[in-house]
Amino acid sequence: MKTRVDPDTCTSCEDCCQQVPDVFEMGDAGCAVVKVAQVPAALEAAVREAAKSCPASAIEVTE
pTM higher than 0.90, yes or no? Predict the structure, then answer.
């Protein structure tokens, strides 16, 4: 599974970074970025939940 954050949509709320810090971090441009090329299997459910709860719907998940 892969994920990405749309920098044009991200509101910099940091929710995803707090929920799944092993996958998301705040980037230099002030929006969240993905730290890994492939989401570890053990974190897939957490990433899906972060995408679902993102207030800006800025997180995309692809299988």
Answer: yes
CATH number at residue 22: 3.30.70.20
Q: What is the residue range of 45's domain?
A: 2-52
How far apart, in Å, do the first and last CA atoms of the chain sit? 4
> Whose structure tokens read 């970074």?
17
Determine, yes or no, domain membership for 47.
yes
Outline where 1-63 has alpha helix (H). Answer: 15-19, 44-53
Q: What is the pLDDT of residues 6-46, one digit of tens each?
A: 999 999 999 999 999 999 999 999 999 999 999 999 999 99
